[in-house]
Specification:
Blueprint lengths: L2 E9 L4 E8 L2 H10 L2 E8 L16 H16 L4 H11 L3 H15 L4 H6 L7 H13 L2 H58 L5 H14 L1 H21 L2 H12 L4 H22 L4 H10 L4 H15 L5 H6 L5 H13 L2 H57 L1
Antiparallel strand pairs: 1-2, 1-3
Helix pairs in contact: 2-3, 2-7, 3-4, 6-7, 7-8, 7-11, 7-16, 8-9, 8-16, 9-10, 11-12, 11-16, 12-13, 15-16
């Protein structure tokens, strides 16, 4: 019977590749991979999805990983055996999905696998960065130190993500409320005035005619057309984001936006330097570190730029040389990385750059929030004020005629 196997392996060039192969046994998968000059590292059966056994709330959050990692580091530092520490933590973690995963990891470790190889079988819970750092910690005999460093990295990454979400959510929520208030006025309030003006007869002022016509349009087919268009655009963007080229195009547009573009660029630089610095300081080779950093960048433009940098390093160049050609990274970053390479303190320099850009992101978010508040208030106040004046202009005119 044919089984679908998921595999991960290294090519002759040293790059890591993953994929799926349908075969009868694992030995057959190994044979197929060796014919393609790939040395397999992990081969597992692909789990079939059971629609009736889906569990909600089973997702492992970054916060759960941070707590587990810190507790695990403390136990290892205290001299507890790896298997015993995993057994204790698998029963006391709050997230049941993580507990089940740790039980499986413990079983693999008991069977003779390294801790890193056992984690690698659970890519949805433990990222490639996490696994590689653990592997470096095991090889260097400093697993507890690496785990503490990992927990600090994840915490800072969570903080950065929270800042960006805050910067995006606030204007989106306020804008939605503003548009909702205006829509309610236009669809439910203005038509009442429109009927009253129709009974009076005569020629209405042009602001009133404009608002009444817009109200008729939104209350009729026009409103449905706008809602349909918005849904269509959202579906279109989601479909495009599923393709490699589509992701690259959208990410490129986002980086060029007038207000959010510079903020996203600073976030990308902070994430790149923080991730690479953490990997290098943990003993992960620079080429593997660049590949992992590219995959975890979250932006296709940045990912392609980092992979170009990696090609330059493979060609014998220093890290600073190809980074100079990548337009994604500011000149200050290039110069500081060059200084770090020349002094042999690249990891420390990358950490300093990451700290600097974390502060820059914080300032950019605060400035954006401070700027968006008055703009949105002016927009909402101006729109509502215009509608109110337009509705009362005919009444003022009528009062004047009566006098």
């Amino acid at each position: 019977m044919a089984i679908v196997f998921q595999w991960s392996g290294k090519t002759v060039r040293g790059t890591v590749e993953t994929g799926e192969i349908t075969a009868a046994t694992k030995e057959e998968v190994i044979t197929q991979l060796r014919r393609r000059n790939i040395t397999p590292t992990i081969i597992t059966e692909k789990q079939k999805k059971d629609l009736f056994s889906m569990k909600f709330g089973g997702r492992v959050k970054d916060k759960d990983i941070v707590v587990f990692t810190r507790q695990f580091a403390t136990m290892i530092d205290a001299g507890l055996p790896l298997v015993q520490a995993l057994d204790i933590l698998s029963t006391q973690v709050e997230n049941k999905s993580l507990g089940k995963t740790l039980q499986e990891v413990k079983g693999d470790v008991e069977s003779g696998a390294t801790y890193a190889d056992a984690l690698k079988k659970h890519p949805r819970t433990f990222s490639e960065l996490y696994v590689n750092m653990v592997a470096a910690g095991e090889a260097g005999g400093i697993l507890d130190t690496i785990l503490n460093r990992l927990a600090s990295y994840i915490e800072k990454a969570m903080k950065l993500k929270k800042k960006v979400k805050g910067a995006m959510i606030y204007p989106a929520v306020v804008s939605t409320i503003a548009v909702g208030v205006i829509a309610v006025i236009m669809i439910f309030v203005v038509p009442t005035f429109g009927k009253m003006f129709a009974t009076l007869g005569g020629t209405l002022p042009w602001p009133t005619r404009l608002i009444v016509n817009m109200s008729d349009f939104l209350a009729g087919v026009g409103g449905l057309m706008i809602v349909g268009a918005m849904i269509g655009i959202a579906v279109f963007i989601v479909q495009i984001r599923r393709t490699e080229k589509g992701k690259h195009i959208i990410d490129k547009i986002l980086l060029k936006l007038p207000i959010f573009g510079p903020l996203l660029n600073k976030v990308a630089v902070a994430k790149f330097t923080r991730t690479l610095g953490t990997l290098v300081s943990s003993g992960v080779p620079i080429l593997d570190g660049l590949e992992i950093t590219a995959k975890t960048s979250g932006n296709k433009v940045v990912e392609y730029a980092i992979m170009e940098v990696r090609k330059g390093v493979v060609g014998g160049k220093t890290l600073a040389e190809p980074i100079t050609k990548a337009k994604v990274f500011p000149p200050m970053v290039t110069h500081m990385i060059a200084v770090g390479e020349s002094t042999g303190a690249l990891d420390a320099m990358l950490a300093k750059i990451a700290d600097f850009y974390d502060d820059e992101v914080d300032n950019a978010v605060n400035n954006l929030t401070a700027m968006m508040e008055p703009l949105l208030m002016v927009f909402l106040g101006g729109a509502v004020g215009f509608i109110v004046v337009a509705m009362y202009m005919p009444i003022f005119k009528l009062i004047t005629l009566i006098k």
